[in-house]
Specification:
Number of strands: 3
Bound molecules: zinc ion
Radius of gyration: 18 Å
Strand order of the largest sheet: 1-3-2
Helix content: 40-55%
Strand content: 5-15%
Distance between the termini: 11 Å
Shape: globular
Number of helices: 8
Order of helices and strands: EEEHHHHHHHH
Oligomer: single chain
Length: about 180
């Protein structure tokens, strides 16, 4: 689900409620690639870290590694990743995999397709074009949760959310309905 997080310095967070965890993404991050990565990062926390303390650098790194592997599985993507900043190829991969150019470059680096020098060259070239702020090849509006609205709208199913205070459920329901 999405909530306005403009005033905070977090992009996303998750609530590890027993059998129905919730991932909250910043509503103002209107970017599909970014949203998918943020959601996968939070999923990583839920899967790997459960209720452990989050926010430590090592823990954040693990969630990022999880997100990258989840969205760009090594076996499936490694042959497609370029060894240099081949932008037409990277644009096509962005469309295919629905992830940012930055994430693709990092994946190419981490999987050893791109050496560190070529990675830095690519990042600098992207910076010079202003792509670090606004990437080319927009993917359209972020995906929306399909199930949450139904769950929250169905009064009969509200018991499944009794772990949440009533006021929070109401707030979530009104956001999910928009
Ligand atoms: Zn995190």
């Amino acid at each position: 689900m999405r909530l306005p997080l403009a005033s905070s310095d977090v992009d996303a967070f998750s609530l590890p409620f027993g059998d129905r965890p919730i991932v909250v993404l910043g509503a103002e991050k209107n970017d599909r690639a970014r949203s998918r990565f943020d959601a996968a990062h939070e999923l990583g926390h839920l899967v790997i870290h459960g209720e452990q303390v989050w926010g430590l650098p090592a823990v954040e790194r693990q969630a990022h590694q999880f997100a990258a592997a989840f969205l760009m599985p090594r076996e499936d993507i490694i042959e497609q990743l370029p060894a240099r900043a081949d932008w037409p190829q990277l644009f096509a991969l962005k469309r295919q995999w629905q992830v940012s150019l930055a994430a693709l470059l990092m994946r190419a680096r981490v999987l050893g397709r791109m050496n560190h020098g070529d990675y830095l060259t690519a990042i600098k070239a992207a910076s010079a074009r202003g792509w670090r702020r606004t990437e080319p090849v927009p993917l359209g509006p972020p995906e929306k949760p399909q199930l949450l609205g139904h769950v929250l709208a169905g009064l009969g199913e509200r018991e499944t959310l009794t772990v949440l205070p009533e006021s929070v459920v109401d707030a979530l329901a009104s956001v999910a309905a928009t």
